[in-house]
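ok so i was messing around last nite and threw this chain in just to see what happens. nothing serious, just curious
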Amino acid sequence: MMAAKRRLEFNPHNFLSSIGKGREMLSFQKKNTIFAQGDSTDGLFFIQKGKVQLSVVSEGGKEATLGILGEGDFFGEGGLAGQLLRMSCATAMTECVLLHVEKNAMMRALALEPKLSTLFLKCLLKRNIRYQDDLVDQLFNSSEKRLARVLLLMAQFGKEGVSEMSVPRLSQETLAEMVGTTRSRVSFFMNRFRKLGFINYDLGDHLRVKSSLLNVVLHDDDGTPLVAGDAAPAPGNNSQPPARPGKPLDRDRAKRPPLPSIERRRARCVS
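result:
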């Protein structure tokens, strides 16, 4: 009975924010390497504070950024599925406080505590959905929209009453890797966003992103000016091919949320 009562009182937030057997709290300074690609797996991490960049390097030396993670995210969990070596590199983008949980301690807790298992599964599913959205974004959206989406996701927009957020300032090379375009294109779009008042550089190592940047993502690329003063297309110039008789236009047939549920995907895993 005592064991059952203790299990009912288990709080996954307490487990993930405190030290104990197989759990230790670690601090990392900005730009510190948390683990490198090819390191042996020794457990997983849960972000208490700060932002972490995940990246991979090809055999040819080309680097690509997989994503930017924040408070409430897990990473480095591949060892739980049998990976012996780290498949990516994790770097602290800001000062970070991380809980490191050894593999055996996490596996034991997941087996004994359903609440922790549910929370962990939800976090992994959210990240999987994010990666699917990234792929769709890469296939169908312009580089300008992809850049706007990356900035909005980093700023974790979707919270009520929040009109702007400050995020760590990334290099244009890193943004180009995340968006899948060139540094010069990123520079062009960032300058455009700044001139339109969507972002603000005047914050040292941080970038202030405003919710109005959503206008770029929600823009249908149908020739409608993004804001007053944008050049309108020439009459009769329509990027959409004519629909076959009885068939809707492609943009009407393939309607989907251009920025699927930011508030749900980027909400913290632990409330």
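not much to say yet. The longest helix spans residues 114-140.
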